[in-house]
Amino acid sequence: MKVLIATEKPFAAEAVNGIERVFEKAGMQILLLEKYTSKAQVLEAVKDVQAIIIRSDIIDAEVLNAAKELKIVVRAGAGYDNVDLEAATAHNVVVMNTPGQNSNAVAELALGMMVYAARNFYDGTSGSELMGKKLGIHAYGNVGRNVARIAKGFGMDIYAYDAFCPAEVIEKEGVKALASAEELYETCQYISLHIPATEETKNSINYALLSKMPPKAVLVNTARKEVINEQELVKLMEDRQDFKYVTDIMPKNDNELKEKFAKRYFSTPKKMGAQTSEANNNAGIAAANQIVDFLLNGNTKFKVN
Ligand code: 3PG
Prior knowledge:
Elements lengths: L1 E6 L5 H13 L3 E6 L4 H7 L5 E4 L6 H6 L5 E4 L9 H6 L3 E4 L5 H16 L15 E5 L3 H12 L3 E5 L5 H6 L3 E2 L3 H7 L2 E4 L13 H4 L7 E4 L8 H10 L4 E4 L6 H7 L4 E3 L9 H21 L8
Parallel strand pairs: 1-2, 1-3, 3-4, 4-5, 6-7, 6-9, 7-8, 9-10, 10-11, 11-12
Helix pairs in contact: 1-12, 5-6
The chain binds 3-phosphoglyceric acid.
């Protein structure tokens, strides 16, 4: 059996070695496609493989059509909005993710970005501290939970809103559960986004919601760019000189934001929340083990389609 690792943004070499060991032990062959620059390379590479490991790499109907022998795709990570689930199901391809495996890495970056914003992007001027400030965690999943754990160490006053996680679960971890996103944004100077990109959440972080935030508001996005209504964000930042936006997912209008709000906007050049050797190891090796367990034993735990 043959497995493709298709990562435009490669895993750390150590993680690739670990993944290779899992497949070697199972007697499976590996094809490594890293830093590819065109879809044609992916279409060629998927031709005769039974399994694929990806990160934010796109698996759409065209890729699935080209992958005639494919049985499983594992997204080494949490969000699987880059995979066309309906098309995968139509092709009898199982799709899985590896929930929780890279969440500490993303959470650490979220706090790092908060400090960066609070200290005026390290420009030498007098900034502020996180201690005692209200932090709103928007969606209390694996990353949100880790953000709460780390933010406690900073002495932040922590709130969360999650449409699906029961308030008791949140409160048990010493975090105040709020009943709506509106209440969260009204209450918290810092908001850390941890919602997935779905039909419901796309463009949902809009002017109406963000304008509720208290003075000196900071929005931290380590989730997905699609959840932000970018035009409305620009309008809001024009109207509110006290508003900062820091993101790990470069918006489509990065140039406009940079030009207009140089001192209040920052984006990483390439999404790097999960880009640590630990997270690569955890997610990559989990993905490899899930593939082996599915192909050899039919285990479908973590299936998302
Ligand atoms: C995820 O959904 O797991 C994160 O956004 C990380 O994505 P990446 O593997 O493309 O860095």
